[in-house]
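Design request, tokens follow.
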């Protein structure tokens, strides 16, 4: 199969959406399919075209950016050219110009469209909402209407999304692809030695410092946890200063600095070092606050390494803890509840830990890759390689 994947941001940009898409792209390439990624040239220092994980990445020039959205005037030409030369189109929402690619695929190239709905859209302020929400909403509705099938990350999220409830007749769900990350002996993290954390009790956070991640509630919970565990250290993993459309770090910097050695920023870690990071933490915290967080793959990455989770009670986000029992669920935007749950897990960690085999059975990434390969094949009317191999 020749698969065209279309989304606003792609590697080296890191977000749940880009990680999800890249894992599916890599798996399809490894299974012998030809994959092209159509994305934005959001960073002009990146090449216009390159090969990543065996897939060709085509970056379209950006005229200007608003919040996390981009405007790409030449996208219609690129979308037309690439939809004509591929068998199927795999769209990812949210994406401001998704309708452009969908229209080219359906009416010009006559190709099937599979759309992965990664999360709902919440724009940051009233002015941006007034200016950009109507065209974004229209674009998403057009893309969804033209899609043959729409894929959500969980049934829980789909049932609580006003957008997805309109398309139940074409809606499917599959868990995100979440591999069991493995360390690289040649590139060790050596977390405790490198950061002077011997004899400290470690609480982890993995994600961009973005508004929807609820980091400010985690920072407000730190002093409360320190009252019970004064030797605790809160480790922040992820981009903090160059997060597109965000100013969270700038607003939190003084408060983080005031906590001194108790909050340590590790920056972005590769998967091989995350594989070492997770088991060092007593608990991983996902304090997300709204529907732009639809799952939180880092939760399962941590669970696979034996680390319990504290997550907020949001559709999709609560799924990992609900189906595994490996952690606590707390109300969003509540630093006191967050702190209390962190303390409970740290006080009785072993009672939350489940065998990694149980976690792998629920979240086997091969099921996700088989799902997409079967879905693409069915839309093209060809036998599925994954079905033939069983």
């Amino acid at each position: 199969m020749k698969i065209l994947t279309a989304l606003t941001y792609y590697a080296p940009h890191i977000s749940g959406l880009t990680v999800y898409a890249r894992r599916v792209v890599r798996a399809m390439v490894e299974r012998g399919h030809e994959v092209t990624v159509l994305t934005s040239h959001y960073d002009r220092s990146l090449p216009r075209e390159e090969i990543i994980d065996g897939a060709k990445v085509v970056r379209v020039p950006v005229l200007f950016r608003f919040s996390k959205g981009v405007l790409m005037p030449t996208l219609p030409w690129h979308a037309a050219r690439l939809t004509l030369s591929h068998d199927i189109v795999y769209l990812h929402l949210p994406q401001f110009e998704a309708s452009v690619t969908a229209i080219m695929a359906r009416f010009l190239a006559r190709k099937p469209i599979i759309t992965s709905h990664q999360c709902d859209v919440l724009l940051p302020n009233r002015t941006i909402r007034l200016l950009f929400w109507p065209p974004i909403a229209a674009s998403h509705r057009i893309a969804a209407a033209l899609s043959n099938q729409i894929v959500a990350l969980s049934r829980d999220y789909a049932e609580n999304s006003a957008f997805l409830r309109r398309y139940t007749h074409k809606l499917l769900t599959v868990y995100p692809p979440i591999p069991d990350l493995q360390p690289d002996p040649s590139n060790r993290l050596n977390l405790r030695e490198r950061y002077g954390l011997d004899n400290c009790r470690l609480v982890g956070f993995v994600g961009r410092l973005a508004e929807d991640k609820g980091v400010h509630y985690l920072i407000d919970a730190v002093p409360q946890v320190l009252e019970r565990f004064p030797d605790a250290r809160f480790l922040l993993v992820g981009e903090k200063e160059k997060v597109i459309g965000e100013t969270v770090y700038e607003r939190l910097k003084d408060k983080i600095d005031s906590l001194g050695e108790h909050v340590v920023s590790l920056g972005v870690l590769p998967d091989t070092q995350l594989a070492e990071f997770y088991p060092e933490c007593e608990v991983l915290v996902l304090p997300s606050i709204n529907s732009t967080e639809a799952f939180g793959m880092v939760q399962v990455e941590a669970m696979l390494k034996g680390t319990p989770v504290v997550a907020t009670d949001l559709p999709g986000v609560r799924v990992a803890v609900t189906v595994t029992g490996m952690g606590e669920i707390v109300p969003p935007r509540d630093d006191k509840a967050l702190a209390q749950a962190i303390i409970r897990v740290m006080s009785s960690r072993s009672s939350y830990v489940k065998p990694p085999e149980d976690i792998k059975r629920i979240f086997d990434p091969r099921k996700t890759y088989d799902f997409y390969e079967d879905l693409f094949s069915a839309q093209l009317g060809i036998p599925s390689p994954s079905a033939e191999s069983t």
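Comment from the thread starter after seeing the answer: thanks! The mean pLDDT is 93.
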